Amino acid sequence: MFSVRGPKLKYFALVLAAIALVMGVYVTFFQSAGFAKTKATIVSVEEDPENSTADDTAYIVTVEYAADGSHYTARLDSYSPSYKVGKTVTVYYDPQNPSVIHGGKGFGVYLIVIGAAIIAFIVVSGGKNKREQQELAAMKAQRGGAAYAPSVKGGEREVYFVTDTGTPKYGHRIEDKNRKVLYEAKMTKFSMTSAFHFDFIDHEHGTVTPHLVGHEEETDWGSSFLLDNHSTFELDGESIWKHLKQNGINIETERKEGTIMPRFRVFRDGEEIAVIEASSQFVHEEDAEAHSVMSKVPVPGFYRIWTREETLDAVFVSALAFARSGALNDEGGGFGKMARRSLGFGKR
């Protein structure tokens, strides 16, 4: 599956930039090579219904010019809002066939500038993103290198992970039954080409930690049995699934009895720290819509959580991994892989 955002948007933009540069160089330096320059007068500017769309109107520009003692009428291969009947423009014609003309090199130069600007933007944004990752790594080292607070147990509690999709700067939060926000990720900077800036806020302990959360990436895996897909995103520059495992977090996926909705058992260093259950049932069903829960059947990014952890950072990131990616196991796999394992194929 191809999604034009994040790293894939960069690749897509690079392809467009390369096309613009190649076309620009061709138009500027090769298309009119050997052509002679002359002045032409615009005799008509008419709408082109065949090439127009609902959002963009195309035009046919016809010019008259003299070449080798003869007069010619031809369609110009360019258009500008400044073109008016009677206006004089520069054209280039083929001395071997004066009826063949081009509208000059301006459009080619424009394409070169656009292509170069796109590449410059990608290079600059890539360098900035790398510096931001290095700054976060330095801050983490100053904190002692631990990604999450030590595990401390308290009484078991039921909390709720909610994804707020009301604005482009959507966030995620864990709250209790009384809607008190316990932990949240609040987006501070939105970007289509690089990672989002988030502040992870532990309201119970009064801590704020900046993180870079990448765009969701999905790759289809062909299968003769069931269609698989691999879904992931980057947290501070590395795959969320790699990040979890490096921090001692492993997650077992189960299916709730009588449904395909998943339940995730979260283990940290071999000890179970939480159960995360995908759900369509919100504790305040009477005003779920106003509370940013999108619908009553399966709501993307809404989970019930049972945990005894006093600090919710590791639990929160575990739920965040599934909410943002839509994956069904801690390898980023989709329904196909989960179904095969439930039938006894490809078990670890």
List the topology elements.
Blueprint: H1 6-30, E1 36-47, E2 59-67, E3 70-76, E4 88-94, E5 97-102, H2 106-142, E6 153-164, E7 171-175, E8 181-189, E9 196-202, E10 207-213, E11 217-221, E12 228-232, E13 234-235, E14 238-239, H3 240-246, E15 249-255, E16 262-268, E17 271-278, E18 303-309, H4 313-325, H5 335-342
Antiparallel strand pairs: 1-2, 1-4, 2-3, 4-5, 6-7, 6-18, 7-8, 8-9, 9-10, 11-12, 13-14, 15-16, 16-17, 17-18
Helix pairs in contact: 1-2
Provide an overview of this structure.
The strands form four sheets. This protein has a nine-stranded antiparallel beta sheet with strand order 10-9-8-7-6-18-17-16-15. The chain has a five-stranded antiparallel beta sheet with strand order 3-2-1-4-5, with no helix packed on it. A two-stranded antiparallel sheet has the order 11-12. With 348 residues, it is an alpha+beta fold. Mean pLDDT is 80; it is low at 1-5, 222-226, 292-299 and 336-348. It starts with 5 loop residues before the first helix and ends in a 6-residue tail after the last helix. Helix content is 26%, strand content 36%. It is elongated. Helix 1 packs antiparallel against helix 2. The protein has helices spanning 6-30, 106-142, 240-246, 313-325, 335-342, and strands at 36-47, 59-67, 70-76, 88-94, 97-102, 153-164, 171-175, 181-189, 196-202, 207-213, 217-221, 228-232, 234-235, 238-239, 249-255, 262-268, 271-278, 303-309.
What is this entry, summarized?
The protein has helices spanning about 5-30, 105-140, 240-245, 315-325, 335-340, and strands spanning about 35-45, 60-65, 70-75, 90-95, 95-100, 155-165, 170-175, 180-190, 195-200, 205-215, 215-220, 230, 235, 240, 250-255, 260-270, 270-280, 305-310. The protein has about 350 residues and is α+β, with helices and mostly antiparallel strands. The longest helix has about 35 residues, at about 105-140.
